[in-house]
């Protein structure tokens, strides 16, 4: 099985093109294209991109997901089947009579003016099952992203566009196994959660701290670098941004 071959087949069917039409547009042999789609020939990423562009896939889709992302997450062969079925079940229409040469020209003359495929099977599928989650630094500026799966429309029980990774800026939480450079997945939580590691803003500083709730409407914000440290603060003086649900460590 070739995932790139599956991807090309899926987009070809989406564009309602035959292997012969795509081969002519791309300047390759029809037999080679069929072999790639069937997984008996290996195709390089750059050539796959050229074929997808000729088919009509818009460049903007590349900005969100790479071919590696697609290959690692989507069963393109399974996705291609419903597309093929829908194409096969469409009522056949008799083409308007015209010379064969003109038919070929109408398929392959798009060049730079082609509108491209409206949407994409694999992109639509990815956006429904994956989310590009930003990695935020200490001043809450995005510096990277990670792909996370969406389950039942949520990530860790929260709306996908509300979660983010926080890049630990120092070793102040090393005693709680969070070191500089580690990524804590932050899920929105605006009230203190007893025993949770939370992203908190206090005295104009933002940091990860382990929270302990007290009965007098105060909290203890705990850190542990080379030694244990704690700050007692009134809940009203703190802004709770979210709880750390997962940790991605740097080895």
- CATH class of the largest domain, anyone? Mainly Beta
Structural class: alpha+beta
Give the spatial strand order of the biggest sheet: 2-1-3-4-9-5-6-7-8
Intertermini distance: 33 Å
Strand content: 25-35%
CATH architecture of the largest domain: Ribbon
Shape: elongated
H and E string = HHHHHHHHEEEEEEEEE
**Global mean pLDDT:** 79
Major sheet characteristics: 9 strands, mixed
Q: Report low-confidence residues grouped into runs of 5 or more.
A: 59-63, 72-84, 98-119
Q: What's the CATH superfamily of the largest domain, by name?
A: Umud Fragment, subunit A
Verbal overview:
By secondary structure, this protein is of the alpha+beta class. It folds into two domains: 3-119, no CATH class; 130-248, Umud Fragment, subunit A, CATH 2.10.109. The chain has helices at residues 3-14, 19-26, 30-38, 45-55, 67-73, 76-89, 100-108, 121-129, and strands spanning 130-136, 142-149, 164-167, 183-188, 197-202, 205-213, 218-224, 228-234, 238-248. The chain has a nine-stranded mixed sheet. The protein is elongated, with a radius of gyration of 26 Å. It starts with a helix and ends with a strand. The model is unreliable at 59-63, 72-84 and 98-119 (pLDDT under 50).
Give the SSE map.
Elements: H1 3-14, H2 19-26, H3 30-38, H4 45-55, H5 67-73, H6 76-89, H7 100-108, H8 121-129, E1 130-136, E2 142-149, E3 164-167, E4 183-188, E5 197-202, E6 205-213, E7 218-224, E8 228-234, E9 238-248
Parallel strand pairs: 1-3
Antiparallel strand pairs: 1-2, 3-4, 4-9, 5-6, 5-9, 6-7, 7-8
């Amino acid at each position: 099985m070739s995932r790139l071959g599956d991807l090309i087949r899926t987009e070809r069917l989406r564009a309602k093109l035959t292997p012969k039409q795509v081969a002519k547009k791309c300047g390759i042999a029809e037999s080679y294209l069929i072999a790639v789609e069937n997984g008996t020939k290996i195709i390089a990423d750059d050539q796959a991109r050229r074929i997808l562009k000729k088919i009509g896939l818009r460049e903007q889709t590349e900005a969100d997901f790479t071919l590696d992302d697609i290959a690692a997450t989507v069963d393109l062969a399974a996705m291609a089947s419903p597309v093929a079925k829908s194409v096969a079940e469409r009522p056949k229409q008799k083409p308007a009579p015209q010379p064969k040469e003109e038919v070929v020209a109408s398929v392959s003359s798009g060049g730079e003016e082609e509108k491209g495929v409206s949407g994409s099977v694999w992109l639509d599928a990815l956006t429904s099952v994956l989310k590009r989650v930003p990695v935020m630094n200490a001043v809450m500026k995005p510096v990277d992203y990670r792909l996370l799966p969406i389950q039942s429309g949520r990530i860790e029980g929260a709306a996908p566009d509300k979660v983010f990774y926080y890049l630990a800026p120092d070793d102040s939480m090393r005693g709680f196994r969070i070191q500089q450079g580690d990524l804590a997945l932050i899920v929105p939580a605006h009230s203190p959660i007893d025993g949770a590691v939370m992203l908190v803003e206090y005295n104009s500083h933002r940091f990860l701290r382990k929270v302990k709730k007290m009965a007098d409407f105060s909290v203890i914000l705990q850190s542990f670098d080379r030694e244990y440290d704690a700050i007692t603060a009134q809940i009203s003086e703190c802004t709770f941004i979210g709880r750390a649900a997962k940790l991605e460590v740097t080895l």
